[in-house]
Amino acid sequence: MDFNGSVLRPLPQLGPMDNDEEAHLMGWNLTPEDLVHVPEHWLSYPEVRSMYHYIMAFSYSILFVIGIIGNGLVIWIFSLSKPLRTPSNLFVLNLALCDFSMVLVLPILIYDSIDHKYPGHLQCQIFALCGSISGIGAGATNAAIAYDRYSTIAKPFEGRMTYGKALILIVCIWIWVFPWCYLPLSEKWNRYVPEGFLTSCSFDYLTQTDETKFFVGVLFVICYVIPLSFIIYFYSQIVNHVFNHERALREQAKKMNVESLRSNQDANAQSAEVRIAKAAITICFLFIAAWTPYAAVALIGAFGDQSLLTPIVTMLPAVFAKTVACFDPYVYAISHPRYRLELSKRLPCLGINEKPPVLAETQSTTTSA
């Protein structure tokens, strides 16, 4: 694919600006070999102030700590604990592996933010590849988790997940993910380039060619619209099924002149429909909040007014997109009662003290997982 192989304005103009000898344009200290990988859009902006780089480094440091603890514990506990090695939990483990790929490269981003430097072409490719695996893989895995929970709750007998079915779905996830990670890496279609502060990298949504526009449009549909549609559909069906089931139970109890048909109902516990609704809303909100701003930036860059995309404006959505990789394990695993039970056994110093579920609650716990 033919990208801009050179910077259109002369390199000396990337040096000190006329009105302020201390001010530079972005990319002023890069070699010509590095400049060919930087979209020209960024080279027209003044160099970002050090304060903003330090803020980004601090934010990434917090995300790294949260992400390494959360995803690390999920992978460790799920790998060692036999009770957690269920077909459904293979999706949670796959999600943690996707998120872990992003968390592992955060130290590089922290260092580059502190040093205010472009990481170099090789590190840029590695970082962007890990980001693609994390983002696209997590979106597809979230859709698979939504399908699994829908099958378990709406079709408790014929919809039960098996190891074979789970493994086939995971293979399908990676077949779905691979082209959109590999094509920009090989530059057969699109490419990985620096973005925002030139310390992080992503796919190119700024080069004004028909191929770039087509790639961004296809990527938006394949990796955002389709997974989000599955997530919303399956969780809305779960909420609808649970509400209808609870309504039927209440109507039957009313006909029998009893308060409730549930023998193990806890007066202090939330109703089933409220718990499921909250989980569904949380999962949908995380996906939308993390990826909608970034998707909007990419669409504006490819099809809209690029003057709206300043370095700071584009870096904020990039940070939001990385937060989901750090908080996913807390939503899917740490809220899991069996996971907390295993965690309390293996790391009693955390003071979790999760109690084993009583026999009467086993079915409810299994369904909610």
Features of the shown structure:
single chain; 369 residues; mainly alpha; Rhopdopsin 7-helix transmembrane proteins; two-stranded antiparallel ribbon; 10 helices; 4 strands; 65% helix; disordered C terminus
Protein model, in words:
By secondary structure, the protein is mainly α. It has one domain (32-259, 269-335): Rhopdopsin 7-helix transmembrane proteins, CATH 1.20.1070. It has 10 helices and 4 strands; from the N terminus they run ββαααααββααααα. The strands form 2 sheets. A two-stranded antiparallel sheet has the order 1-2. β1 and β2 (20-24) form a beta hairpin. α3 packs antiparallel against α8 (311-332). The model is unreliable at 4-21, 265-270 and 359-369 (pLDDT under 50). Residues 70-332 form the G-protein coupled receptors family 1 profile domain. One of its GO terms (biological process) is phototransduction. Its main location: membrane. InterPro entries: GPCR_opsins (IPR050125), GPCR_Rhodpsn (IPR000276), GPCR_Rhodpsn_7TM (IPR017452), Opsin (IPR001760), Retinal_BS (IPR027430).
